[in-house]
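FORM 12-B: Structure-to-Sequence Request
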């Protein structure tokens, strides 16, 4: 789905009126750089990222924070609490199959880049 969905996400972000647009763009770039197998689309009215299935979707409802919901596609699953190492305590677990990352600005995202990439890679490993 490469080009067509990337074009859709470009158009969605360009039309977005959000005070943290630069953070949204930076998070998108970070996610796409994690692995060349990651594709994107607009799903659930936000940029969403997938390999074999969707695993991360931005939540853009709040003007003061960019949220990234990590999930395991459309099927309900459970992850053992210790399957994703989170030494910096960045994840807020929302349930047995989803977690939340929050960023208040692009500088915070950049400061946490290494930890966020490690979390995304571990999360993606749970898709198979």
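FORM 12-B RESPONSE
SEQUENCE OUT:
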């Amino acid at each position: 789905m490469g080009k067509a969905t990337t074009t859709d996400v470009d158009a969605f972000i360009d039309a977005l009126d959000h005070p943290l647009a630069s953070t949204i763009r930076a998070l998108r770039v970070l996610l796409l750089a994690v692995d060349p197998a990651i594709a994107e689309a607009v799903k659930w009215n936000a940029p969403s990222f997938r390999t074999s299935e969707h695993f991360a979707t931005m939540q853009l409802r709040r003007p003061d924070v960019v949220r990234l919901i990590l999930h395991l596609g459309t099927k309900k699953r459970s992850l053992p609490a210790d399957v994703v190492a989170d030494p910096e305590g960045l994840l807020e677990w929302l349930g047995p199959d989803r977690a939340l990352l929050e960023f208040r600005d692009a500088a915070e995202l950049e400061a946490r880049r290494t930890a966020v990439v490690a979390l995304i890679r571990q999360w993606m490993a749970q898709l198979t």
